[in-house]
Amino acid sequence: MRMQTMLAHFGEETFHGAVVPPLFLNSIFTSNTFDEMKAPDTPYRYSRMGNPTTDMLEKKLAALDNGEAAKVFASGMAAISTTLLHFLKQGDHVICSYPIYGGTYAMLSGWMARFGVTCDFVDFRNLDNIRGAAKPNTRMLFTEGYSTMFMDVFDLRGAIEISKAHGWVSIIDNTCATPATLKPLDWGFDVVVHSLSKYLSGHSDVIGGVVVSSRDTIRKLTEIEVSLIGGSLPPFDAWLANRGIRTFGLRMKQQGESAMRVAALLAGHPQVERVNFPFLPGLGQHELAASQMSGPTGLLSFELRGGEPAVRRFVDALRWFKLGVSWGGFESLVYATAIGWQREQVAGTEYESRVDKLVRLSIGLEDAEDLLEDVEQALARI
Predict the structure, then answer these.
(1) Quick check: is 46 catalytic?
(2) pLDDT tens figures, 55-94
(3) Are residues 232 and 307 in the same domain?
(4) What domain range includes position 103?
């Protein structure tokens, strides 16, 4: 099956001919006999560990990323933190790309230090920075397929070669790039994490996360961390995510096409100093992005001349782009790093001077012409 056909049909049981699978809201599952309950292969006992509704979603997500298995969580951060706690122990060292998602930065820059885990954040655009950060106790390489704010892409082939040569576990947050455009497990990454709250669910009504990896890794993660930490996705949220993911391929296509048009408009506007969208020919990193990703997403950023005052006027003048912190839903959103962002991530780097003038757009499913008109009229008010 191709992607959209798989999303429409794969992993769903048929109950009395129902097109939409039922929702299993129950917390426990009973057995008929002592031996049946005791059997190690009993599929369901307690919904924290497994549930038919979450299983349907996990089957789709594993297939979508070409993985053997998947485990869904109550948030993207639950997926990330559980994965870090699964692989890391006291004395381990992590090499992480920057800028990185804020929650990941907070975990690796400070919180994990409580357990004796250290991290170096380096610019993955230069592979020598990865090599130079290697230590005898390095255990993990962590990166993103498409960085959250500045929309950088990295040489994933080169990064994974370094990781494998050193025997590190490699983890990639693929929320921004999505499996519609990038499948990191095919490149050799060990683990992929996503926020379900963004493109995968797509309706801004679910908070969730997922880890996709080998069957053995997901089994161990479920038996240990999921059991002890308990960050499982509730069945109703899994049902909502499964509903949303059925249109994932169609949404990504339209959002990517609209984003290309918005990026082209911005790239030719005199008030715009820089557009961060490597899918547009002629922009920085375009060749690398085209060699690694099959198409654009709906997420882009740009930098305005005039800094924070210009950003403030632009954001406040928008009509269809609503001001919000997330992305990937049906609605178009705008956010500016000058409103609030972890500046310590980029202190002393080239990114530091770009924070106050950066605007991020998440392109939704509105008519592209309306979005273009909205951006044009807002730029005219700067």
Answers:
(1) no
(2) 999 999 999 999 999 999 999 999 999 999 999 999 999 9
(3) no
(4) 3-245
